[in-house]
Write a structure and sequence with these properties.
Elements (H helix, E strand, L loop, with lengths): L10 H23 L8 H29 L5 H6 L19 H22 L5 H29 L3 H14 L11 H8 L6 H18 L22 H10 L1 H5 L6
Length: about 260
């Protein structure tokens, strides 16, 4: 199916889902961009900037499609710069402050493992425009996963200090990973329509892949906490998202409709 043949009853759910995917990419891209000029060395500084650009490209494609599905004339820029924090649908994992290099790499590894599984499954989406975006994004996310996996091995099986920092980051981030695989009524509607994959069914594969790399990195898989962070998909965010948006949206808010 495409935009012309999409069932009108599915549009609200699909719009929300595209916001989830687009907002994840947008906010993670912004966090990665904060490393520009601050990387541990020049080559890695450029690598992180390129990862950020990939994420922003995914966000633009997904939010553009979201605006088309919504049908109210909103562009990707409108959705990125003219929504408040409670209107964003990203998981809390991606909005956390960048932290140190080990924190950024560990988050990227956990998210990229998830994103590769997601985009691989979305290539089979019954909604053809989304399947097309997923096919392109998957190629780039595979690089993100390879890059972050190699760094996890280097940090975990490196010096005592690098191991400590990587383990600390992993322990802090683990409680935010459960939200990646939540299935609510909106997503269930799209699963039944074969537009979206059942992420809960993909979680065991994610865990298997993550644990395999962590073993090689000599890092300990954290125990699942009694409480997993949740709420981002419903607009409930940490205080960090508001600060991020204040910076990211400043120009458009201060000079509405400004063009270069």
């Amino acid at each position: 199916m495409n935009l012309e043949t999409l069932d009108a009853a599915l549009r609200p759910a699909l719009f929300e889902y595209l916001l989830c995917l687009g907002d994840d990419a947008l906010i993670l891209g912004h966090r990665l961009s904060e490393w520009c000029g601050h990387g541990p060395y020049l080559e890695e500084d450029i690598a992180l900037a390129n990862l950020a650009l990939d994420c922003l490209g995914h966000a633009e494609a997904l939010l553009t499609l979201a605006g088309e599905v919504e049908g109210k004339g909103r562009t990707a820029d409108d959705l990125a710069f003219l929504r408040d924090a409670y209107d964003f649908r990203n998981v809390q994992l991606v909005e956390l402050p960048r932290g140190d290099f080990a924190f950024t790499i560990t988050r990227q590894f956990l998210f990229a493992t998830y994103a590769c599984l997601l985009y691989e499954a979305l290539q089979q989406s019954a909604f053809e425009p989304l399947a097309g975006i997923a096919a392109k994004a998957l190629k780039e996310m595979r690089y993100h996963l390879r890059h972050s996996s190699e760094w996890m091995r280097c940090l975990g099986d490196g010096t005592e200090e690098s191991h400590r920092r990587a383990q600390t980051a992993l322990d802090e981030l683990w409680m935010y990973t459960g939200e990646l695989f939540e299935v609510d009524d909106t997503l269930r509607t799209l699963i039944e329509a074969r537009i979206a994959p059942d992420m809960a069914a993909l979680q065991p594969k994610w865990r298997e892949q993550v644990e395999a790399v962590l073993r090689e990195a000599t890092l300990t898989v954290p125990e699942d906490p009694p409480y997993m962070a949740t709420g981002g998909r419903r607009g409930h965010h940490t205080e960090h998202l508001g600060h991020l948006l204040a910076e990211m949206q400043f120009l458009q808010r201060a000079y509405p409709g400004a063009q270069w």
